[in-house]
Amino acid sequence: MKYYIKQKVFSWRDQFTVKDEAGNDVYFIEGELLSWGKKLYVRDRSGNEVLYIQQNIWNWMPNYTLFMHGQEVATVKKELTFLRPRYSILGPDWEVSGNVWEHDYEILEDGDLVASINKEWFTWGDSYQLDIADDSNTLLALGVIITIDCVIAAQQAANSSS
């Protein structure tokens, strides 16, 4: 199934809306304004928390833990590399392949497609198209994608301030 993420351009905290192919709001993502490390809450249409993403701040490289229904389901870690960014996903046996910097990559499990991510260019704010192969992986794939986007955004902000 296809989903679309649209980030708000002017927002004091992270805010995203995830829409389905018909343009209906499916999930709402909102970050905490003041917290140690990034914390993001994913809520369904009814306002129920369905996924929680927390940055683990005492690590050398970016590291985030994903929770569903209060249970840890995955950890996303950026690996130390010199050429291209690489991420490990602990929990499910997933790997990230493609051009992460350009937001054009895939998440694979044993060579099978879990999700593909493509950035839509020339839009107001960042917009992404997600194609998730199996609906049972939707929330976890969405969490991994949002986490990778957080790492990239933080690195771009750090690079632009220096």
Structure in a nutshell:
The chain has one helix at 138-161, and strands at residues 2-7, 15-20, 25-31, 39-44, 49-55, 63-68, 71-79, 86-90, 94-99, 104-109, 112-120, 127-132. It has 162 residues and is mostly beta strands. It has one domain (2-161): Porin, CATH 2.40.160.
Instruction: Determine the mean pLDDT.
Output: 85
Largest sheet: 12 strands, antiparallel, barrel
Low-confidence stretches: none
Task: Write the element-wise H/E pattern from the N-terminal end onward.
Answer: EEEEEEEEEEEEH
Overall number of domains = 1
Proportion of β residues?
over 45%
The H-level CATH homologous superfamily, spelled out, is LURP1-related
Share in helix: 10-25%
Task: Give the assembly state of these chains.
Answer: single chain
CATH architecture: Beta Barrel
The CATH C-level name is Mainly Beta
Total helices: the number is: 1
| Alpha-beta content class | mainly beta
What is the terminal-to-terminal distance?
A: 40 Å
Number of strands: 12
Q: Strands of the largest sheet, in order across it? A: 1-2-3-4-5-6-7-8-9-10-11-12
Q: Tell me the overall shape.
A: globular
Radius of gyration: 15 Å
What is the CATH fold-level name?
Porin
Structure in words:
The chain has 162 residues and is mostly beta strands. It has one helix spanning 138-161; strands at residues 2-7, 15-20, 25-31, 39-44, 49-55, 63-68, 71-79, 86-90, 94-99, 104-109, 112-120, 127-132. Strands 1-2-3-4-5-6-7-8-9-10-11-12 form a 12-stranded antiparallel barrel. The mean pLDDT is 85.
